[in-house]
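Subject: for your reference before the review

Hello V.,

The reviewers asked for a structural picture of the protein, and I figured it would be easier to keep everything in one thread rather than splitting it across files. Below is the amino acid sequence we used in the manuscript, unchanged from the supplementary table.
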Amino acid sequence: MKRRTLVRPTHLALVLAVVAAISPHLSGEHPEESHHHQEIAAAAMIPAAEKLPRNGWVASSSSEDSGGETANVLDGNPATIWHSRWRTATSLPQWLTIDMGTAQRVSGLVYTPRADRGNGRIGRYEIRLSLDGNWGEPVVTGTLADDVAAKTISFEASTARYIRLTALSEAGGRGPWASAAEIDLLGDPGPRPPSQGDPSVVGKWGPTLGFPIVPAASAVLPGNRLLTWSAYAATGFGGANGYTQTAIMDLTTGQVTGRKVENTGHDMFCPGTSMLADGRILVTGGSNAKKASLYDPRTDTWSGAPDMTISRGYQGQTTLSTGEVFTVGGSWSGGRGNKSGEVFSPKDNRWRRCRTCGRTRSSPRTRPVSTARTTTRGSSRAAAAGCSTRVPARRCTGSTPRVGARSPTRAPAATTR
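And here is what came back from the structure prediction:
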């Protein structure tokens, strides 16, 4: 499979209502099937803004070292860098301030990391604005990916003369320092599209938050945390690589911690996802189409689960009233067609193939069970689209159930043994 890049910048927007929600920004096509991911509604998007001319700007910093002078971030040459002091003792945070000379409307900062090596790439950050050199609260915070790509950090358009980028951590944990190749600022993007609906009812969008990965999938965890993951790369996908970039966000503090998950042998790009009764997260299929993985929020650990019986990606999946997990369908990953349902039993730690998704047979005293309807809260006989062990079954006819579809008015005729 050809490797592809997920759309940047990787930012999240929090819905400030009863709940917080995060929407992934994805675009692209799989080689076997054309599809398009939906963008956030236009009313929630900030229009594109142009870079401001840097004439007359002055850069200052908390510290610098020989060969890593602060002025290099404004020289237009990405091969020269600013680097905080490292030859003698230093510590984080480190900051970089741009003085534009006059007050201007500004709505974002573009941070270009050094490309020659990783040392000093900024991880967690905050940005503050000022008209007179007195600093208020941060206008945006977040975490940046540890790579060479330029990062665009957007925030609410404001009038400012001074912009300060503060490095709170080094992206790779390599040391207590910070660096940058170039810094650009974005101007006023113009008026926002009008909001739709009463914010007290429909909620409102807050500032964007920098994120170290493109969150192609997510699951809410106990303790007001959000588990997210992308693919084998933070911003790209393609191929069955056997590992996944993940990140957990504390929705209370905004802090993000990243991790590369390798021990399950599972590239979890575009999988099925369910929460089990004990709070564990079951992730199935995707780029490694037969693989399944479990995340336990109680121990903050990933472990492998038994492989599915059918390879899948983009499948439907839900936890049943029995505590088991039903998954069905799928598209691009693992080939097309022949993707009938199967069920995972946490108790038995195994998958079983559905064999009652078509006809059923029953004893004279047993009413035939419809198999064309699924539910997330119904009885076990309706669960898993007929995957109940209560009804003796014939092999599936080849059709797969559709969630929400109802059976014909006339039930299939019962047969006796």
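For the response letter, the relevant points are probably these. Residues 8-46, 357-417 have pLDDT under 50 and may be disordered. The chain has one helix and 24 strands.

Happy to draft the paragraph if you're swamped.

O.
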